[in-house]
Amino acid sequence: MLAAGKRAPDFTAHDQNDAPLRLSDLLKNGPLILYFYPADFTPGCTREACALRDLHAQLAAAGVCVAGVSPQSARSHAAFAMKYALPFTLLCDPHKVLARAYDVVGPLGFGTRRASFLISRTGLIEDAVQADLRIGRHEEFFRKIVAAQAH
Questions:
Q1: Contact 104/96 with Cβ under 8 angstroms?
Q2: Is 65 a catalytic residue?
Q3: Which of 45, 50, 65, 92 is catalytic?
Q4: Quick one: which of 118, 112, 65 has its CA closest to 92?
Q5: Of all helices (H) and strands (E), which one includes residue 99?
Q6: What residues are paired with 22 via a beta bridge?
Q7: DSSP letters along 55-72, please?
Q8: Residue 15: CB partners within 8 Å, gap ≥ 6?
């Protein structure tokens, strides 16, 4: 996993509407929470996405953008976003290009690890957490960002 202080790797990926987005597009209005998760509709990933959804108004008020990344298709992401009213971008990474760039490919190359990055508007990783099964650590990370940006 990339550590704080490193430059966030640039990328272009398709979102849940199958539109291409670059990292610079996501950073144009402020910092970004870029979070990687294994799969749409799984219990842990749903809990994490809903925690971000519930904090979204506070994050937006603090100028923080959110984007999730997993290997599923735009169609799956669109259904996931609609079912859980997710107000943020979900990026498709079917070949794990982003997961490799951010060093969050699962053990033995399988899957995507659960990791969250706070990326500054200038493209530097300010903070990061990886906790595959401990969703609560990610929720704490998101709340810490809200608190820090509010000051």
A1: no
A2: no
A3: 45
A4: 112
A5: helix 97-101
A6: 12
A7: HHHHHHHTT-EEEEEESS
A8: 21, 74, 77, 89, 90, 91, 92
Neighbours of 119 (CB within 10 A): 24
Gap between the terminal Cα atoms of the chain = 28
Tens digit of pLDDT for each residue in 136-149? 787 888 888 888 87
The predicted pLDDT at position 43 comes to 92
**Alpha carbon 27 to chain centroid, angstroms:** 13
Give the pLDDT confidence of 39-76 residue by residue, as tens digits: 999 999 999 999 999 999 999 998 999 999 999 999 99
Name which of 77, 68, 61 is nearest 29 in CA terms. Answer: 61
pLDDT value of residue 37: 95
Helix (H) or strand (E) holding 117: strand 115-119
CA separation for the pair 52, 120 (Å, rounded): 18
Other CB atoms within 10 Å distance of the CB of residue 109: 9
Instruction: Give the phi and the psi of residue 4 in degrees, each rounded to 5.
Output: -55, 145
Provide the 10 A C-beta neighbour count for residue 4.
11
Instruction: Tell me, yes or no, if the pTM score tops 0.70.
Output: yes
